[in-house]
Amino acid sequence: MLYFFLSYASDEDDIFIHRLFEDLSAEIARRIGAEPQQVVGYLDDSKGGNWPADARAALSTSQTFVALCSSRYLASDRCGRRWGIFVDRIHKDDAGAAGAAGALIPVLWAADGVTESDFHEPDLGVRPHRTPHGDDLRVMMRLRSHRAAYAAFVASLAHRVVETAHAHRLPPAPPGIDLDTAVNPFEQRRRRGEDEQSKVYVVVAAGTREQMGAIRNDLRFYGRRREDWAPYQPVAAQSLAARACGVVSGRRLRSEVVPIESVPERLRQGLRRDILVLLVDAWATRVGDLERALREIGMRDDETVAVLMPASPDDGETSARQGELRGEVLKSFPGRSSWHDALFRIGVDSPDDFDTDLSVAIAAAQRRASRRTWPPPRPGAARPGARRPVLEGP
Questions:
Q1: Which of 93, 105, 335, 376 has its CA at a distance of 20 to 30 angstroms from the CA of residue 352?
Q2: Residue 118 belongs to domain spanning
C-alpha cells in the first residue's frame, strides 16, 4: 500500500521538503512495522509538464494526498491538476466522501496571503493538518527552537495518514488518467470568484508635462500622459500607477487605471465591494481641471477611497513649498481631518513606504467594504444615503 502522495510547488524550499518527506516516511514505516525497503510515500518532484509514469501510478493508488499549501501552490497549474485528480478519486468512491474523509490533507506551508478557505472542498469536509502553534510549517522547520514542535507535527501527521489509510481503502483511479485533461479546481474557483472580488480602481491626479510646464520648473517627474507621473525618480523610474497596480496584484486583486473624470460618477453609483485609490500630486490643485475634479471627489468622499500623496525628498522644488501645497490638497478633502486614517496618507516619501501604505490602505478599505455589503440588502430595500467619512484607522 502507498500511504501518501506529497504534493508541493516547484522551487519551494526543496531541501526542507525532502527532509519532511524522509521524516514522514520514516515515522509511518515505524508505526506500521514496515520492512526497510518498503516504500510508503511518493514525493511529487516532477517539474513543468513532465508527467512520469511513476507519478501517475502513485497518484492513482495513494491512500492520502498531502498538499503543502502556499500562494505558489495555488498558482501552480501542475499542483492544481494533481489535486483535482485526487479529489475526483474521492468523489468516484462508492463509499462517498464520508468514507474517504481525511484523505485530502492540506498543510499550510507558507502563509503568504493564503488562507485555509483557498483550499476548501465544500463537498468533502476537508480538515487541514495544523502545526502545534499554528505556525507556517516552512518557518517551523527552519527554527532550532521549534524542533520539538516539528517532531510532534510529523508524528501527528503520520498518525493521521496511517489511520486514514487503514480506516477506508480508497479505490485506484481509472486507467489512463491524463494530467493534460485533468481539471484544475483552483483555476475554476479563481474565475468564478473574479466577479465577487473587490476591484481596485487606480486614479492619477497629476498633470502632464505640458500642463506642468506652466506651473513649475522641475518637469522630470511628468510625461505625455497623466498616468506617466513617476514622483520617485531617480530612485524608482516606474510610473506610480504601474507601481500601484503591482501592489494590488500582490494582494491577489484586480486593478484598472481609470481617468479622474470618471470618479464622481462612480461615487454617485456607489462602489459596493470596489476600492478607489487616488494618487495625488502635491501640485494637482494648481491645474484647473484636476482642482475641480478633486473638489468634487472630496464633496462625495467615500470610506473606501484611499488617498495617497507622495513627497519625494529628491524633489527639492516640492519640498520647499511643502506646507502650502499640502494645505491646498487638504482643502479638497474637508472630511479627512484625521491623520490616523489608514486611507489618507500625506507625505509618503519613499517607494517602500508607498508600497506599505497602499497595501495597508487596501486592507482597511476591504474591511470597510465588507461591513457595508454584509449583511446583504433586503430585496426592495432603499439604497442608503451618503455616508459620513470614516476617520478611524484600520
A1: 335
A2: 4-191
